[in-house]
Amino acid sequence: MLLGSIAALGALGAAGCTRVAAASGNGGDLLDRLRAQGVVRLGIAGEIPFGYIDKDGHLTGEAPELAKAVFKRLGVDRVQPVPTEFGSLIPGLNSQQFDVVAAGMYVNADRCEQVIFADPDYQMLDSFIVRKGNPKGLHSYRDVVAKKAKFATGTGYAEIQYAVEAGYKQSDVLIVPDQVAGLNAVEAGRVDVFAGTALTTREVVKKSAKAEATTPFAPLVKGERHVDGGAFAFRPTETRLRDAFNTELHQLKRTGELFRILRPFGFTEAEMTDLTAKELCGQ
């Protein structure tokens, strides 16, 4: 799913994006309603390790587990998953099918026009799934273009735009549901490369005899090295809930509890971050 400094504690309430329509004067009443209900509905996309239902039918993943910790501190004891396709998360949020997106969603300018984000709970580089030995020598999006490689990535993934920015024709991109489908496409020879996050690619290839993940790298955006950050998304009117979430998130960062929550899902110290949503929204 870019490095910066943590905003001062007093500025946490202003850390999110403001391009969307102005919120109501009191910042929304969703937090009060969630406390009264005792449950928050989480939009998830069934993507390991960000948010998914495990083989025993339990909700887990880095975002749901973080949501459990943060919302408990906010006085909301239960979380309820609402699975949907990744590309439907923002429309589903804004049509009130769920209360918050908890899917490790990257913060970018386009999405900041539609929702407001908490500050990122992780940062992430990209990586490719390629055939063992990386026969085409693919280490960047520019390599994919230069070597005329068959390219795939996931539905709604930021990697689509990174490939297009490098010169890949968007209509030639093979869109697959997730990283497992991407691995299958590479193993079957239908594509030369699948692009995803460094975390998802390194996890999905662990048991593959035919494919491997490349060394993580930062894609280029407008010629500049870009590191992504993943965060929770909220409806534009719910600034009060977003700000309360941010306050608890930053406390978990300071104590080290955030890393303890994320580490079981394959996250490393290098993927902890002090990026802000405001930076990633381009403000």
From TrEMBL:
SMART domains, per the entry: PBPb
Keyword Signal annotated: yes
Solute-binding protein family 3/N-terminal domain segment(s): 39-269
Gene3D superfamilies in the record: Periplasmic binding protein-like II
Pfam family, one: SBP_bac_3
UniProt entry keywords in alphabetical sequence: Signal
InterPro entries: Ectoine_EhuB (IPR014337), Solute-binding_3/MltF_N (IPR001638)
Name the UniProt record assigns to this protein: Ectoine/hydroxyectoine ABC transporter substrate-binding protein EhuB
Source organism of the structure: Streptomyces graminearus
Gene from which this protein is expressed: ehuB
